[in-house]
Amino acid sequence: MQKDVHSECSPLPSGGLIRLQARATDLTTWLAPTWAVLCGVVASGRFSWDGQDWLRLALLILLVDGGWGTIWSALGATDWATPLQRWRQSPSDEEADNTSIAVLPYTLPDAPGGRVRRVLGRLHAWWRDEARPNCGSSLQALVIALPVTALLGALLGPQLLLLSLAALALSQLGVLWEAGRGVVPPGWDALIAVTWPWLAGHVAFGPVTLPSAGLAALFALSWGMAWRTRSNRGRAVAAGGQLLAAASLVALRRPFPAGALFLLLVPQLALLPWTRTDHPATWYVRYTRPWLMAAMAVAAFAL
């Protein structure tokens, strides 16, 4: 069962413009991975606007948002811990003896076949009462998303296939980070929703450069730490990521885009005082994310 974990410290998994698993959330969350993909494509400077590149871009968005996004949503927003804990409290093998699992003919209760039946009965009861109600829809989404992701990654090339494997590994690590409680860590969400899609957009059309990868990481810092703006550290990192991105553009001799990043940061800084007492982090994220997305686009065009 998926939880609404859109609290002041825990976002829903970003993505959902193309989703193999239905989920309601706000527009900027829908657009996050697709927007990052487009920024990566722009940063590559290799998009030729012909039909082949448009087809490649469409497949890439389907891979990132439909494939990676579905996997991340199914894994990150599902409470896996509770069913696993209740497995220990499920009926014992002896108590499961009266389940609907058929008795094999000529099988004695104490024989290996009888013991296997009791174990299967216990597993059946646990799946029926705990696992299926809580995790069934997510498992169905994973069954669809995993082969689709593998197929699209193979069609787009070995680099995208490797990035897909890395995205799957990061999604699993994000679940383990929160012990499978269905709580989405903002840092992991930013990594999967911003950094990885940006890299995918770049590598799909050209070799990744250090400035592009660095900007993707810096914007992911601001993206994730926007959920932590009630703490001094969270505010510092959220603003610092964009300041470092602007400084990077200055170092790359892009002063005008760097100045635009400073200007786009001003409204975000102006809203920070309200996050201390008056408004939750969801409010801050809702009204500042468009400015952050605009800064990502400016930085991508500047490369």
- Compute the number of strand runs: 0
Count of discrete domains: 2
Shape: flat
Query: Biggest sheet: strands, sense, closure?
Result: none
Work out the oligomeric state of the chains in this entry. Answer: single chain
Radius of gyration: 23 Å
**Series of H and E elements:** HHHHHHHHHH
Integer average pLDDT = 79
Structural category? mainly alpha
The proportion of residues in beta strands is under 5%
Low-pLDDT residue spans = 1-8, 20-25, 93-98
Task: Tally the helices.
Answer: 10
Question: Which percent bin holds the helix content?
Answer: 55-70%
Note the gap between the termini: 43 Å
Description of the structure:
Helix 4 crosses helix 5 and helix 7 packs antiparallel against helix 10. The longest helix has 45 residues. By secondary structure, the protein is mostly helical. The chain has ten helices and no strands.
Task: Give the gist of this structure.
With 303 residues, the protein is mainly alpha-helical. It is built from ten helices and no strands.
What are the defining features of this structure?
303 residues; mainly alpha; 2 domains; 10 helices; flat
Topology:
Layout lengths: L26 H18 L6 H26 L4 H7 L24 H45 L1 H20 L8 H18 L6 H16 L6 H20 L3 H17 L9 H22 L1
Helix pairs in contact: 1-2, 1-6, 1-10, 2-4, 2-5, 2-6, 3-4, 4-5, 5-6, 6-7, 7-8, 7-10, 8-9, 8-10, 9-10
